[in-house]
Structure formats: C-alpha cells, structure tokens
C-alpha cells in the first residue's frame, strides 16, 4: 500500500508524495510508514487515496484545509459546510485547521464508483487478456448509489437543509475511470473553488468533475420546502463502454413532509459535450490582491506531449490477435521501475531511468485527423524529463485519435499549474498562443484534455524531486499513460530535496 495526498505540493518532502515506485516503495503487509509533511500556503478541498494499482477504489478520502483566521473565504461565510464524495467504498475525511497541526476525522461524503468485484482481479484479468477491464457496478454519492431496483437500502444519502441559508458543498470525484456531471434539481450552484484554488464565482446548474478533481460550490436554499434530487451521472467522451449508472441523493428542506414526492433533476445526456465545455470555459482564477495569479510569462521549456492509446505485442494474451491495449505520451509507454525513481535520483543509482523523455513527438502527424497512422505500436521505457530548479515550463497536452479520441484527465504531482489555453483539433504553435489567457487562468492540479483537442498548462519547477504526470483514469495509468519530471536541487538553503526518512519502505 501507498498513500498519495492529491494536490498537496510536498515542498521538498517528495518522500511523502506516495505514488508507488515513483517516490517510494510500497509499505509491506504488517509494516508501517509515517507520512510526514507540512501543508504550506494552501487551503481548500483536496483528497487522499491509495496510489498503487487500482487500490484507489478502496482507500480514499477528503482533505479539508481551512483558511487562516486572518484571511477568511473571499465570499460570504456559509451557514454550514458539507463534503460530497462521488465514489466510496471506504473513506475518511481529514480536516486541518488554520495552524495545520490538528485534525478531526469524520466518516464522510464523496462520489464515484462501487465495485462488487475485487478491483485488483479486474485489472489483472484485463492485463492478462489484453482487453479493456470490466466497468464498475454503480456510482455513489457518499457511499450510497441511491434507490435502485437491484439494491435494497435506505434510499441514499440525505442532506437536510434549512430554508433561506447558504451551504458550502465540497464535491470530490474519487471514481477510478468516470467523469461525472453533478446537479441538484431546481437549484443553481455558485462555483467558488476548484482543486483548492479560488475562482471567480459563477452560477451554473451543472458542474463536471474528472477523477481526482474537486469543486466547491455555494448552494442557496431559496426554493419551496420540498425534497430535491441530487445526481452524479457519467460523461462519456468516447465509444468505450462505461458504467452508465446514475448515483442519486436528496436535499431535504427542514419541515418537508415524509410523504412528499422528490423533485427530480434533469440530468445531462451522457455525451453532453457542450455542457461540459461550457462549464470548463467558465473557470477563471480569482486573481485578487490576496490571491494573485502568478502565471509564468517567460518560458524555459516549451513541450508538446501527445496522449493517446496504442497496441503492443502480447504473446500470452488470451485473444486471437495476441495484442494488448497500451497508452502513451509522445508514443512512449511508461515502464514502471522496481526501485523508486526518487530513491534512484537522490542516491544516484544508475540503470533505473533515463532523463531523455522527448520534448515533442518524434514523428509529427495530424494528431486528431480522421486518418491515423497504421502502425499503432509504441516505445517502452522509463524515461523522465529533467528540469533545472525554478525553470518555467509550458506543456501542451495534445489528444490524439489513435484507436479513438478520448477525454484524458491529466494530474501533475508536486506543483499546481495554470491552464492558459484550450481548443479542439491540433494545437497551432503560431496562432493558438495569441489567445492564451495569461491574466486570470484557472489554477489546478488535474486538467481534462478534451476528446480530439488540447490544453496548454504552465508551471514553475520550484519543488526539487521526482514528480509524476499521469492520466487519472486508472485504466490508462495501468496501460502506461504516464511519465515523470525530475527537478534538480537549487543553490539556496531551502531549494534542495530533504533526505529520506529512516522508515522509508525499501523495495
């Protein structure tokens, strides 16, 4: 087991970041490891989860970092706060106060997927057969799928509210493989934060979260006293099979009759790309005096990463073609090492990785065109991209049509980034940068690359260590859609990676 504190920057404490074989070896059965780190200059809603194979489905929860008392929310203080987790098998909420030295555990609320099967067996079977893995059996809100004909229970999660109040809902998508729309019948939601970064508030009746993303919204209870349905329904951006179930919960105004009917939500179609695009295009950084947008304007590394699927020979696979699906960045399918990359980097252990990850595709082509290359094979390797301390980076994440186009939520460890541009089709380096938002772009740690399109992100490499970049659809990570940056130490006293703790697990 390993645990990743998703969105916590881990300044100089990469040993506590958690991805297996990237920053640490797994904690073995019967042994222990203390994750020791400081949360600095961050506040908001994040999550923690297991980060080895598919165990994220079983172990995950919320991290709530409260703002300092001297710097309250940049919006009216809500009457009450609630965590809504989209997906749960087991979860726990970790709440940090303004001095970051206390916590309050609470068995809490989220959304995502429910699996009747052992998820490790699901992915093991898929890797052995060369085929896509089975999908989950249901989606959940705070551990409940809601009323279903095949699932007897208490009717799902219930949120009881007082009329004429404002509630802060902290919504987290902890699903393995599904992007989810979130709605509350007859209510608008005011979006105020994503991925623990404040945004310019805007109203919407539908929000979209990719796996790993968080969104804070204000819910004002300004409707007649009644019961209102909450839905978490899938967004399908490609022809792959998905779990098409909708999780439901209920907002109940205090004083509502127990026999009152529930007002149903008008959930979006699964392929509601315009609704998804409208939501993401509305996100802008707050960029206030207290929370400025420090977007890098001068770029040291300008990278183009194509992301997509491919095929690899698989003599032992149980299919007639003896092939298996793989995923890649710049046609490189990442091979997991047997020694943690951070350990190899810190101690100078050779033969574990190379630092020659390509800055752009070796053979450019029409990435999103109808005619894709006939050769769907990819290169295998444990290849990293090296960055000098404090260098600035722009990465254009370019989706491809290899096998088929698909939406990819990409997560960067160790740094937040600014999403400065986005578009459909192929990125045009001569025209598209002219439309970049370098004033108030949204700041995130996980960004959804649109199906058949691209996004451009910028960040500053001011955190020494080895930092994972990967698709947060777990099936794509398993197939190799991942790479890592190695950030060298700087020259100042606080610009170097700290030594590993004594109890760091060994491989």
From TrEMBL:
Domain Plastocyanin-like: 1-68, 112-255, 357-490
Cofactor: binding details: Binds 4 Cu cations per monomer.
GO biological process: lignin catabolic process
Cellular localisation: Secreted, Extracellular space, Apoplast
Keyword Membrane: no
CDD domains hit by this protein: CuRO_2_LCC_plant, CuRO_3_LCC_plant
Name under which the protein is recorded: Laccase
Organism: Salvia miltiorrhiza
